[in-house]
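PROTEIN DESIGN WORKSHEET
SECTION A - STRUCTURE
LENGTH: 455
TOKENS:
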């Protein structure tokens, strides 16, 4: 743990340089009524040895579990070099690279990351990141509304879109008077229901959001969906797991003309699972839509001496232009997360990212084969999947997960709170981090739990 000691002599010297005698004088502008004289619930100070012991004890309370959870946050191997480099002072302490001449390293990282994300999505440009996948999708929808030339402010989304994404869309779009039309999914395949889609498309709409894969891990048929939306005069937004794009056709190549915008969560690239965050949203689009892209774009140019240089090319946000003309009120970007993600992608390279995706998919299929061999456990949907899939259990998924947790296994996500119509449904995920022994351990534990527990 980094530690910077300030001795009483150091503190006194710093205060003297400001003609002060007490640290409390630094906060004199705070009204006395707002200050707490004593913090009754804060324990007595600990020395370093005691503090480290307490930290270890608290960490141990979290347990060491075998994780088969997915649902938008994934456990992938992160090479040690990623955060060793990302937490160097040059990156870790940098905030916003307003001065290009003093921020060349940071700007180059942003530029390289944008280049890699544009390559993965098959689109022309990428911005320098958003807060997370859900807010990136909301920004993509608002971008589509600005681009659409009709009067409609209606967007079609699948009920198979991640429920957190749908909740964020509802929260952020309602004040903008953007309506969401939720399209049901086919109970057999888990894909967008084509009949429900046709009914929803009978009225004008701005854009169709295609999740690839969707919340259930199911792969949609984006070519037909993209062409259908374009024929209706609407834009297409691909909300994609970027790791899947190492194996699947990129959004820029969907259908005849490709998707117009792609966005999603880049957490699979170098970002650990850490108490709910942080995350990292990406957003890419066609060249002609560049001026409506939120956030910032780092660009590469040549200086007066002909040497490569980097700068912020586009900053269409309220800090830089009139508020009414801003495309977003994003006040910063996930610069540190971008740095880690760019290093992760650079270390793996195109072949390495493809191998991670293929290994994750193979492990998921192997896990499904082992679990569906257990009496009473079946696949919920028959469409192809990536990364995760839904299982139907013979008893409550919540109870099963609780008993698996007691055996040191995080067995997946219960879907009843989000989709009660699916019954005893469990979303399971296996990444490249899982060994055959891990998969066998999960299968044996699940079989034991189902056999010994009452239905």
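SECTION B - SEQUENCE
RESIDUE ASSIGNMENT:
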């Amino acid at each position: 743990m980094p530690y910077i000691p300030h001795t009483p002599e150091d503190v006194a010297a710093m205060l003297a340089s400001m003609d002060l005698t007490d640290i409390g004088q630094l906060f004199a502008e705070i009204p006395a009524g707002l200050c707490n004289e004593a913090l009754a619930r804060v324990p007595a100070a600990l020395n370093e040895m005691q503090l480290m012991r307490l930290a270890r004890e608290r960490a141990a309370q979290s347990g060491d579990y075998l994780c088969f959870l997915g649902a938008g946050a994934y456990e992938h191997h992160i090479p040690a070099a990623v955060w060793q480099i990302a937490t160097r002072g040059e990156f870790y302490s940098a905030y916003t690279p307003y001065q290009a001449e003093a921020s060349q390293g940071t700007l180059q990282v942003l530029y390289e990351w944008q280049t890699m994300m544009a390559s993965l999505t098959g689109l022309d440009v990428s911005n320098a990141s958003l807060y997370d996948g859900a807010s990136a999708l909301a920004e993509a929808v608002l971008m589509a509304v600005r681009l659409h030339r009709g009067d409609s402010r209606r967007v079609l989304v699948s009920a198979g879109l991640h429920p957190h994404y749908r909740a964020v869309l509802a929260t952020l779009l309602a004040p903008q008077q953007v309506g969401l039309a939720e399209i049901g999914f086919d109970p057999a395949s888990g894909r967008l229901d084509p009949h429900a889609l046709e009914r929803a498309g009978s009225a004008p709409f701005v854009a169709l959001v295609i999740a690839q894969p969707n919340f259930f891990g199911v792969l949609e048929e984006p070519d037909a969906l993209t062409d259908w939306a374009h024929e209706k005069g609407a834009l297409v937004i691909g909300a994609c797991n970027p790791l899947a794009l190492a194996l699947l056709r990129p959004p820029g190549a969907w259908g005849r003309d490709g998707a117009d915008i792609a966005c999603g969560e880049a957490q699979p690239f170098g970002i650990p699972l850490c108490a709910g965050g942080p995350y990292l949203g990406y957003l890419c689009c066609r060249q002609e839509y560049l001026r409506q892209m939120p956030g910032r774009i780092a660009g590469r140019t040549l200086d007066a001496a002909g040497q490569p240089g980097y700068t912020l090319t586009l900053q269409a946000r309220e800090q830089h232009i009139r508020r009414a003309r801003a495309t977003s009120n994003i006040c910063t970007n996930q610069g540190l997360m971008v740095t880690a993600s760019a290093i992760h992608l650079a270390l793996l390279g195109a072949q390495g990212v493809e191998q991670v995706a293929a290994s994750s998919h193979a492990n998921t299929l192997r896990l499904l084969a082992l679990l569906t061999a257990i009496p009473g456990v079946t696949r919920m949907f028959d469409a192809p999947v990536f990364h995760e899939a839904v299982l139907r259990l013979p008893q409550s998924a919540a109870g099963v997960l609780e008993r698996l947790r007691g055996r040191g296994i995080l067995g997946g996500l219960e879907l009843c709170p989000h989709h009660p119509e699916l019954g005893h449904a469990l979303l399971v995920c296996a990444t490249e981090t899982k060994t055959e022994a891990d998969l066998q351990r999960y299968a044996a534990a699940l079989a034991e739990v189902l056999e010994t527990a009452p239905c």
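SECTION C - NOTES
The first strand starts at residue 66 and ends at 67.
The CA atoms of residues 234 and 375 lie 46 Å apart.
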